[in-house]
Amino acid sequence: MKLITFYLPQFHEIPENNDAWGKGFTEWTNVKKARPLFVGHNQPRKPLYDNYYNLLVGGVMEWQMALAKKYGIYGFCFYHYWFHGRLVLEKPIEMLRRNQNIDFHYCIAWANEPWTRTWHGGKGNKEIIIPQTYGREEEWELHYKYFRQFFLDKRYIKEKNCPVLLIYRLRNIPRFNDMLRYWNKCAKKDGFSGMFIVSMDIWRDQTTKSCWVDGKVDFEPGKTRAEIIHGGSTLAPRGKGSLLWNRFAIRSIRYKEINEKMLKAPHKKNQFRTVFVDFDDSPRRGERAVITRGSTPQRFGRYLNEAILRSKAEGNDYLFINAWNEWGEGNYLEPDTRHGYGYLRQIRKVLNHNK
Questions:
Q1: Given this model, what pLDDT does residue 226 score?
Q2: What span, in angstroms and rounded, lies between the C-alpha atoms of 140 and 273?
């Protein structure tokens, strides 16, 4: 079973964020300023040994990938941001490509949405910083040429000689069939057997049937969380917990409930499951957050084990984990001051058990 964790590259400064949020903004900015919203709320989250790293500093990604590999993770899936040829947060993956001394697999997930202030806690209507456009063949060629340097890397994850590429909102692309057909043609010219396109399955945004889409992956906990919230399931009632809870009316869902619903969903070949560590986006959204209750390393390990067993039965070799370092969503495997290496140790324990 190949475990692939989603990887957020927003732990270094970029001009776009400095312009929108002020000089020095990174993902750590929101993480550090987070405050508990009710009694027992685990905020702010703190990395072990105050390791508020900068991804552009040499040795940081080497440490991350050596740690991930030690505990049995197969690879990272880097979020990729492309706006009509303009790149954002591209430096970490480019540093990885150039550093051939790092022995670790990776792939790309194209997060094809506009760059907005609400992505990191902006209030009110979305303020679009960079619009998302798709263009035609000229832009498709330019985009493929950028991907190509990674596809040709021996460490890039491939399925039957096809580079694996995830796309967040495939249905947002007006001519996605034409684009994917063109990319497959380009990949074959480079000696591949084509491309292995995986659509990220979001609530009410399931994959459109297409001969150019090879698989899908559940984007959790967002997909199942939305089903629970909009389906009228058991959210924690207003007033439960404390006066602060009353005041802010925080939306809260049990970790157990989300996971059990995720496990019950049927999957077929190339329909990949995702397990998640935890979720709490209050560092980004304050009182408008959605928070899961009850995640522990032991519970995470139990649901990871179940997801592996079901994935095997469904004929799938890949299982995704959300996430390696989504600190702004309380969703990370990296060691922190509360659980240490607990979640990573559960991964190694479960993998050893399933050998």
A1: 85
A2: 29
